[in-house]
Amino acid sequence: MYLMKKLTLILIAIPLLTLWGCKKEPKKGNGNASFKTTYNIDGAALMTDTFAYLSEAGYEYKITRVEYFLSGFRLKHEDGNIYMSEKVLYINAFKPETNTFTFKDIPSGKYTEIAFYFGIDSAHNISRSLDANIDMANMSWPDQMGGGYHFMKFEGVFKNNDKEEGFAMHLGNNKNLIDIHLNHSFEINIDNTSSLTLSMNLNEWFKNPEVYDFVTDGSYSMNKPPAMQKLKKNGADIFQVK
Amino acid sequence: MKKFFIVILFGFYLIGACRKDPPPSTEPKLKQTPITLDIPRFFPEMIIPKDNKMTKERLALGRKLYYDPILSNNGRSCSSCHFQAEGFTSDPGLPTTVLPHVNLGWSKNFLWKGRNDQGLENVMLYEVEEFFQTDLKKINSDATYKKDFKDAFGVDEITSKEIAYSLAQFFRSLISGNSRYDQYLRNEISLTQEEMDGMEIFFTETGDCFHCHGSMLFTDNDFHNTGLDSVFNTDKGRYDVTGKTSDIGLYKTPTLRNASLRKRFMHDGRFTSLEQVIEFYNSGVHMNSPNIDPLMILPQKENGLMLSQEQKDNLLAFLKTLTDVSFTTNPNFSKP
After folding, report:
1. Nearest-CA distance from B222 to chain A in Å?
2. Per-residue pLDDT tens for B155-186?
3. Which domains, from first to last, does chain B contain?
């Protein structure tokens, strides 16, 4: 009788223990942060095909391409600890599937700052090192101009005295990496995913603190250090977090 | 002693229960021989769908079909227009240029206007069902093919899907990544000074070729209007597929690998040599073309590239380094 009881207990306990042991749980006390990137031009929606936008220097323009990398995400906990990610994220404003990304296993608690690099940190900005897919490969920055990858391809057409001319704001090279810091209070809760939105105002590339003029600064920034430096300065506050 | 055995058994049970078993396959159990493609150094990750992993049997079948006019009802096969010696393209005298079958395992958009962007298997399905309009009765009445398809796919009845899947496998194997340029990147050879100067033009703003023909594939797999025409009347490019006015005049960027072997260039075959193509970009671009790519109308390039004859010669010399003889003579790609 005693043996029967013991056997019954074991038979009940084994499946329960098995289920408990195999269940995939995130680390205790951790949660996730899901990011979405959105775009506006001084509040107006991002569209192609139309000269709907006006740069600070006074040029009407339309947008044809917005591709960029984000990397080196750091989330600052109120206790001073920093969650860091090694992810390098390729984003194309016109491909929705590239505009959402998630960081997992983040210690729960209150966070006060989101920081990241606009571009690819120097440890990863090495020619042909990121070619995991075609999109990333297409962002390569030729070795002849320093190698690595384009941090950004922001292209379109502007009106210069009614004449349509192209612009290509291309950013690359390690010295033009933009370190973005956004003060924002948010919480990471255990076993939950917090949603955050990074909203880029594309017109900010052309103002604040510097006015970028397509004609005098150059409508093609690639390999033009002064133009890229100006973009770097303006790029520090292109994002708002919600 | 009994307790000891119970503990041991319990341990084995837990280990066994926690083992991650692969999900049950939906494909029939077949004796397949998995193969791994030899991907050249620096190339991106190839897109291979889970339900058509590379196998010796499917690849061999795809290769056989590629050369077999059984695919069509007019005695033609893929190889009728795609000659290996010419980098798997040719000049059949059509009003459109035959895009080369090379490195399509990495392609996202297919055909000049991107008629298909659902993957290689899907575009092959289009070729079988719409382009060739393959007579399935004919192929099902061929005893050898019946056996080949049974071995490769486990099917008794051959459908367009299996034909498309096997063709897709052969297309994925058509990899060109051993040109002199590749050998140079691998530090195996040196290029001539002329070729090096041409490479400098190609990969800098002087020629600005790399933005569309960049990466190891020498195509960005995207669509551009490079100013071939001022107006687009009947053939409106990608617009014919999407209906978006911003797509009028846009065509897919062709790869430049093995371009020196081609006899026709641009989507309509208007140029017959690489020299003509270079001259077009040098001085013939229609800057007022609708939806012209912004990179074509930068202020510094409003009169074209303005290369000297020496620079044009050097650029041509570099383009010729993209010719891959080991690809055009590879016996694994020829008619079986």
Report:
1. 10
2. 999 999 999 999 999 999 999 999 999 999 99
3. 50-175 (1.10.760.10), 180-325 (1.10.760.10)
Backbone φ, ψ for residue B250 (5° rounding):
-95, 135
Radius of gyration of chain A (CA): 24
For residue A13, is it within any domain? no
Cβ–Cβ gap A137/B217 under 8 Å = yes
A100, containing H or E segment: strand A100-107
Q: What residue numbers bound the domain in which A203 lies?
A: 31-241
Percent of residues in chain A assigned helix, strand, coil, to nearest 5: 20, 45, 35
pLDDT digits (tens, 9 = 90+) for A148-185: 999 999 999 999 998 888 999 999 999 999 999 999 99
Does residue A3 sit within a domain? no
**Which residue type occupies A15?**
P
The more confident residue out of B153 and A20 is B153
| Residue B299 distance to chain A (closest CA, Å) | 7
- Which of B6, B42, B297 comes nearest A165 by C-beta? B297
pLDDT digits (tens, 9 = 90+) for B275-319: 999 999 999 999 999 899 989 987 777 789 999 999 999 999 999
A166–B contact, CB cutoff 8 A: yes
ipTM score of complex:
0.81
Count: domains in chain A: 1
